[in-house]
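Handout, section B. The chain below has 292 residues.
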Amino acid sequence: MAKVAFLGLGVMGYPMAGHLKAKGHDVTVYNRTEAKAVKWADAHSGAYAATPREAAEGCDFVMTCVGNDDDLRSVVYGEDGAFAGMKSGAVFVDHTTASANVAREVAAAASEKGIGFVAAPVSGGQAGAENGQLAVMCGGTQADFDTAKPVIDCYAKATILFGEAGAGQLTKMANQICIAGIVQGISEGLHFATNAGLDAKQVAALVAQGAGGSWQLANRAETMVDGKFEFGFAVDWMRKDLGIALDTARENGASLPVTAMVDQYYADIQAMGGSRWDTSSLLARIGRKSKT
């Protein structure tokens, strides 16, 4: 079993760190809001530290799951950053949905310090994190990946290396692009079914069994029809992710017309006061538009 630090105890990181502890690893956590770290330590009989550096000292692995590029830099660099406390030969695994550029930047900084690095954004949402069923999209060297994979697998159902640092982030962008289009399509389908006088939940249950099926349809259709959006993956987070994807598409020449359109639809949701609503709230926007 390894000595592991986990930095960032949001809706994803909190249960992910719990799985590491449950599998027998020696886990120390850090969170910007210390009260949450104290709560985790009490619940899991683990330890917490006041800074990323303190959490990382003596660890074999340091895992992070924070908000964005700048949040990642804030826990990595500086006198109190994780890199200041990590030993040579340890491996840093970042689960943040961030840009490919910051992954390459941190990988280079890690290499200079003799630290391994795997950039490994995840998909599966809060439920996937809680159930240990995340899909993990990795970028880094084969050696670092092979070293880190048994630890990552504590909360994953699929862990794949896609290439060098940044490749995992690019894969996560493709994941978010797919989700954006799927959720908009489901929203339009449910809206159409309702306007046609059909039982939209019954329609969704049947469609989910055929070629139109998806995780989003199976897990979100009922709450969408009921107008329940106060949970799940927030619109603010999705817009951050889609912004990264759209910026990268401008760099590599990819054409993403549907993604750009759905991103603006999420901007409409934010204007409706739904910044923290689940991404399935696209249906609420269609309902409002149809009445105007």
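Note. Residues 170-290 form a domain with the N-(1-d-carboxylethyl)-l-norvaline Dehydrogenase; domain 2 fold (CATH 1.10.1040.10). Compare this with the example in section A.
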